[in-house]
Amino acid sequence: MKKILSLAIIVCVIASCSKTAENEPENQVSGGWELRYRTIGLNPTQTFPPGNGNILKFIDDNYELSENGVVKKSGKYLTLIDGSAATETCSTITPGEFEKRIIFMPDTIPPKKYYHIAGNTLKLIWGCAAVDAKTIEQYEKVAGN
Prior knowledge:
Blueprint: H1 2-23, E1 31-40, E2 46-47, E3 55-59, E4 62-67, E5 70-81, H2 85-89, E6 100-104, E7 113-118, E8 121-126, E9 135-142
Antiparallel strand pairs: 1-2, 1-3, 1-9, 3-4, 4-5, 5-6, 6-7, 7-8, 8-9
């Protein structure tokens, strides 16, 4: 009986570990990302050339946002799996995209920010399209950061 109980406890521990791993996305955001495009609401898309100094950098659990080479914001961040991007952004989201959310501390209030990484591209999306408040930013991974 003790062997069955021990086996049941081991199975439960292994199962709970795998569930935790599913809820914690890999830290793919690590490193430096330079802004290439930004669209806010119905405004025309802004394009940013390489070397523009608008860098979003992630090191361990810290982030740093620079505009034109000047640090404007920094702090802790965390990522989590969250499949509510379509609802939160009032948009149609391609399956497999924007299934992860990023929280920049201390900005824990809405809107929720979602991200998607494909190759060397990081996309962030937040706000609701229905009220012309959706923002999309696209970054490119930069070497040496």
